[in-house]
Amino acid sequence: MPHDNAREPLLGSHQHGSSNHEASSTGGFAYTIEDLSPLTDPTNPTTPRQMGGIDKILKGLKVDPKTGLHSDEAGSHSTGKDSDSKFSARSKAFGRNILPTAKSATFFDLVKRAYNDRTLILLSIAAFVSLGVSIYEDYGPHHNPDEPRVGWIEGAAILAAVAAVVFTNAINDYQKERQFRKLNAKKDDRSVKLLRDGREQEINVKDIQVGDIMLMEPGDLLAVDGVVITSHGITCDESSATGESDAMKKDAEENCYVISGSKVLDGSGKMLVTAVGSNSFFGKTMMAMREATPDETPLQVKLDLLAESIAKLGMAAAIAMLITLVVKYFVQNALSNDDLPPGNVIFSDMVKIVIQAITIVVVAVPEGLPMAVTLALAYATTQMLRDNNLVRVLSACETMGNATTVCSDKTGTLTQNKMTIVEGTLSLLPFTRMEDAKKWKTDVKPEVAQTIIDGIALNSSAFEDKDEKGNLTFIGSKTESALLGFIKFLGASYSNIRGDNNVVKMYPFSSAKKTMSCVVATPNGDEKYRLYVKGASEIVLRACTHYVDAEGHVKTLDDHARAKFEQIISTYADKALRTICLSYRDVSESEFKKFKDDEAPNTKLTCLGVVGIQDPLRPGVVESVASFAEAGVTVRMITGDNLQTAKAIAKNAGILMKGGLAMTGPEFRALSKEEQTQAVKRLQVLARSSPTDKTIVVRRLQELGEVIAVTGDGTNDGPALKMADVGFSMGITGTEVAKEASAIVLMDDNFSSILKALMWGRAVNDSVRKFLQFQLTVNITAVVLSFISAIASEDNQSVLSAVQLLWVNLIMDTLAALALATEPPSPDVLKRQPTDRNAPLINFNMWKMIIGQAIFQIILNLSLLHFGAQLFHLQSTDEDGNVYVSPHNLKVLRTMIFNTFVFLQVFNELNCRRIDDSLNIFKNLHNNKIFILVQAVVVGGQYVIVTFGGQAFKTVPLNGNQWLTTLLIGSLSLPVGLFLRLLPSYLIPESVLSHKSEEHQPLISPSMMRLQGATRSIQNQNRFFDNVRRGNKRKAQHGNSAENLWKKYGSTDNSNDV
């Protein structure tokens, strides 16, 4: 990749704290932290030669490469035995290999954070006002002795609800953080091998100093940055840090930088430590994770706006009621024949009017809404853990429901980060999947299969061992590990084969020759020795003179057969498979004696076949990508791998489509901001990307209004994970940096689990909106009923008493939150587009249901108030034939109205299970047992209140017919809901309710992208043929220009066109 000298270092040169990072006092060293930093910048490393050579660097750091650091470096002034005191000057200049302890939030901090919510603060104010007024009313001079002093319950209950929400959130956050810390516990007692005082020593990883000479061996997980000073075939896996899946060869000249977080796969050597702690690649990334502060989620923003709107409307209704009742009071007194009441009576009456107005505000505030949000999130996160999603940030769950783009890493996220044979043609018998390899083994000649298995097992330096997590895995080259995994899948044991055979000569893999060879003694064979060769297909095939056919016969490799093998290799290469050719040759004893030790005799070989190796997709990825597409969520691959491999993987996964854009990080970075904004709309694959590229992509998408989820497992994914609206990290293969940066940890490392997170996120948003639809219907009905009935009545009293409103407005709301917030997601949530970030929380269908149901319930309850006595046969006739309602029957009527009101809400809650125009409101009801249980509790509680509420609830027991009557009237909410759903939208003017779609509109629709891709394809082909025709006239001047033109214009894959 070309160097861009103007580009900043990958993670900048962050300085955190003063004790570890002060470079002003160099302690007599020739270099500072900033001087050494360019040596290990993965995007543009500076070689030691550019700094005057490794010897100059060693001298500047006061270290002898033969003996390492000396523990008496601090001189006689140091009496301490720990590494820090021995190397105090070095630690002061370059820092220690520890990260500053992150300040964890205390439980009190979490409580304050949970309470910092506008709706909760508004509720608290309303509760304290209600408490003050109700206490005055209960214990004031005008309190009716027959009335129970229960006015304080309303305010106290609201405060209890606020406290429940705050502490539920705080406890949930505290538990999630503890669970995450337990998951991500570091092994601080890990030891490493260093050269100190002229001998090898094992020291704690925290005691490594800049200038230490560290020994490198296979399997080492490097905790510091450095440069290689001696290398014996060192190969490192840097995939977790840079995203590059290929093993990186290290030497002491050009490719000498080593970054923390990488793993030594093969070889041995020594490295000079140049950066530790928060100055290392790993440390800089970890510290960057602690700096970002999360923004408000889309739902939080909408809820804040709603709370403000409700407060304003509630205040407006209260002021209107206050003015109306005050005017009514004085008008009535003025029109009456009596004198005006004395001042103390007027004051007392005014206080009652104010209390009525304040009650309107309290009723208008949806106190159940925060509880519904909390319950929905708490329930979802608990259930998501069962789906292997550990939610670290509670709000990330609902944010994921609005996600419009998933920016995914390739290595370890979409793929398994394990090279595997995915196709092969051995002995001219093909298999197209790993699962078909066993059938291939049964079809091929046994002796041919054994030759192939022996060659793979013996001509290899990889081996099987336990990794740092205790799991068996192959250690060594990823290509060799794939081949050994192949024969293990076939049932062979590489260790038994190696034990039974004697390898007399080994020619290790050479990057120059791209082959690896070994000679094995075969005392029972036709010849005394056998040569096995494997390597790059074109090179090995060129050295072959024979091949093994499908019948197991060795035949001459003529031009026709060679063309056939070349076609196989070309087919695999087109799929971005790494092709390996396997071959052998039987060698006589006399010929063996002529073999040189430094040059493999790769001639006159017999080709056994070709295999294609690839880092395969994780199971379920293809289906998940398709489901994301159906849900209107765009999946984009951002990887450090090369462009050809990335495009092949993206096509296999269904990410890269016709008309989509695939490009490299340097190409994207070179664009202007405006060009980046245009390119990112069609960007589906970004290869060879650095962490900076990923964060730029996320930023550009967010500027376009996208809600971004970023997935990744490597250290290099950290900054983008933190910047994204939702960051997903891998719990098994993910680095500590990735987990620290993420909002959700995928415990099973399965990309498909992200789809479950999307479903739960949408379920949470739906649950909040369902509850809101129910809550606002209740509140609007209660406010209007209280308003109208208070104004219409002679004593300014509402048809629903304060305690009855407490039951309706608090207990039922809380129970409704529990019922509607705990509904598990159905596959239907993936069959719609994401909700736009700026879409209103209450859409057209919800407003239609809220307003329609509220109007129906208000008219019904007011009608029952005026005509109920006659309808329910509660009227009596006196001796003079006058019709009247006895005091007891009046209580029965008010109890029936209260009962009807409650049953209207019970049945309307069924309507609220759907927030669209779907007619089947009972769908999947059996799956939500909590909903059924809550309805049973509400009906049971209503029975207890009506039957035994008495004076406190102003109710009297009802008989069976009266219960049945109120139940049937309440059930009218169902047909009214059906009517409202069937009501055509065009009947409601746009000026009354906005019909604007709430669906997020994609930056470019998939159909438009395919159309543009097909159009460009035709245009490019026409251009190609036009140029071919012109090129024929200039053929003499331009040589084979047609071939060049085809390469430039003729590809039907236009995904590289911006």
CATH fold-level label of the largest domain:
Calcium-transporting ATPase, transmembrane domain
CATH superfamily of the largest domain: Calcium-transporting ATPase, transmembrane domain
The CATH level-2 architecture of the largest domain is identified as Up-down Bundle
Shape: elongated
Tell me, what is the CATH class of the largest domain?
Mainly Alpha
Number of separate structural domains: 5
Mean pLDDT, all residues: 79
Radius of gyration: 38 Å
Largest sheet: 9 strands, mixed
Strand content: 5-15%
Termini gap:
20 Å
**Tally of helical segments:** 39
Work out the helicity level: 40-55%
Provide a descriptive summary of the structure in words:
It is a single chain. This protein has 1058 residues and is α+β, with helices and mostly antiparallel strands. Helices cover 49% and strands 15% of the residues. It folds into five domains: 33-73 and 86-91 and 208-289, Calcium-transporting ATPase, cytoplasmic transduction domain A, CATH 2.70.150.10; 298-378 and 759-990, Calcium-transporting ATPase, transmembrane domain (Up-down Bundle); 389-415 and 619-749, 3-Layer(aba) Sandwich (Rossmann fold); 420-614, 3-Layer(aba) Sandwich (Calcium-transporting ATPase, cytoplasmic domain N), CATH 3.40.1110.10; 1005-1040. The strands form five sheets. Strands 10, 11, 14, 15, 16, 17, 18, 19 and 20 form a nine-stranded mixed sheet that branches. The protein has an eight-stranded mixed sheet with strand order 8-26-25-24-9-21-23-22, sandwiched between helices. Strands 1, 2, 3, 4, 5, 6 and 7 form a seven-stranded antiparallel sheet that branches. β14 and β15 form a beta hairpin. α32 runs parallel beside α35 (960-970). The chain is elongated, with a radius of gyration of 38 Å. Residues 1-25, 75-81, 183-188 and 1033-1058 have low confidence and may be disordered.
